[in-house]
Amino acid sequence: MLVREAFVRHFANGKALGSYAGLTATPYNSGGVEREQGIGKAGNRRLRTTMVELAWLWLRYQPGAAQVTWFRERTGQNGRRVRKVMIVALARKLLIALWRFVTDGVVPQGVTMKPAA
Predict the structure, then answer these.
(1) How far apart are CA 77 and CA 84, in angstroms?
(2) Is 109 part of a structural domain of the chain?
(3) β-bridge partners, 39
(4) Which of 12, 97, 104, 114 is deepest in the core (most CB within 10 A)?
(5) What's the mean pLDDT in 91-109?
(6) How far apart are the first and last CA of the chain?
(7) Is residue 101 within 8 Å of 57, Cβ to Cβ?
């Protein structure tokens, strides 16, 4: 699914990929008020949904990965709401890391891979 939806296109950088997937923040700037409104509905819905699900699985099956360490440091002992918000950020970081793996061959730090059969 990731190959059909995301990795078949050319992106200039990870920011463009995150924007395509709809995993970037939606800022609100009006006068002196600056707020983040969370993620918007723009972007590829299937890719965004898949990446959030993959992020939850990544937490479970790749506990030594750098992204998981980053997530656990940020969430700590906070409640469910903070984890739900931060999982979207993890999904974006994971999508960019997997894109770099596919395009440049850079294996994400701390990932355990099964040996080829």
Answers:
(1) 13
(2) no
(3) 25
(4) 97
(5) 92
(6) 23
(7) no
Cβ 102 vs Cβ 94: under 8 Å: no
CA distance 92 to 32: 29
In a domain, 54, yes or no: yes
Query: Each residue of 7-28: pLDDT tens digit?
Result: 888 899 988 998 899 898 887 8
Please give the single-letter amino acid code of residue 61.
Y
The answer to whether 17 and 98 are in contact (CB under 8 A) is no
- 116, part of any domain: no
Domain that holds residue 23: 2-104
Q: State how far the alpha carbon of 16 is from the alpha carbons of 25, 63, 71, 73, 96, in Å.
A: 13, 27, 22, 26, 10
**Cβ(103)–Cβ(61) below 8 Å:** no
113 part of a folded domain: no
